[in-house]
């Protein structure tokens, strides 16, 4: 069964108003960028608008954090204070999910991100986000794990404690109520 990746006119308008208000409230995240240009780009790409809606719906509070001058893409990250609530208690990926014999989580971070049309933040992107504010003071977020670590059964996650960003490892099949993932979307 495929779900329709399209927003109703009401959903579209509500989302644009919400994201615009967040954009205007947090200008430090995107100095020099104008909302009208961001909105025009979003309206030209309804599938990206749907992905942005999924980020919002799951508690990510997406906001523009960068502009790629080479490609002309606006880059959104999840900017919720804590790891998005609608994306917690998930293991790292499908392989990890299938390796669990019992007490399986509902989903994996990589599968959820793919279903939403977004990418999980890399460690570098996570550190960039942390320069824009204090995030994950009580939670943690899976980040894109290098293949050599994943091949050995591990996965990495990050959080911020003691005014420092920490990178940790865990078995990819682990999941916790306070660990989710943050995503990025290029529009």
Automatic annotation (TrEMBL):
Highest taxon of source: Bacteria
Protein name (Swiss-Prot/TrEMBL): DUF4256 domain-containing protein
Organism: Brevibacillus composti
Source lineage: Bacteria, Bacillati, Bacillota, Bacilli, Bacillales
């Amino acid at each position: 069964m495929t779900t329709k990746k399209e927003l109703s006119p009401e959903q579209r308008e509500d989302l644009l108003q919400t994201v615009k208000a967040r954009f205007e409230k947090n200008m430090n995240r995107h100095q020099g960028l104008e909302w009208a240009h961001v909105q025009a780009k979003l309206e030209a790409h309804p599938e990206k608008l749907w992905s942005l809606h999924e980020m919002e719906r799951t508690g990510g509070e997406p906001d523009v954090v960068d502009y790629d001058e080479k490609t002309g893409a606006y880059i959104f990250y999840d900017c919720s204070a804590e790891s998005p609530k609608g994306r917690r208690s998930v293991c790292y990926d499908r392989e990890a999910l299938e390796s669990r014999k019992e007490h399986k989580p509902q989903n994996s971070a990589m599968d959820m991100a793919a279903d939403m049309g977004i990418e999980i933040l890399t460690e570098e992107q996570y550190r960039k986000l942390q320069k824009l504010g204090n995030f994950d003071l009580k939670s943690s977020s899976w980040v894109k794990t290098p293949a050599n670590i994943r091949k050995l059964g591990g996965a990495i996650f990050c959080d911020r404690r003691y005014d420092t960003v920490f990178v940790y490892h865990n078995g990819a099949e682990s999941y916790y109520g306070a660990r989710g993932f943050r995503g990025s979307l290029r529009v």
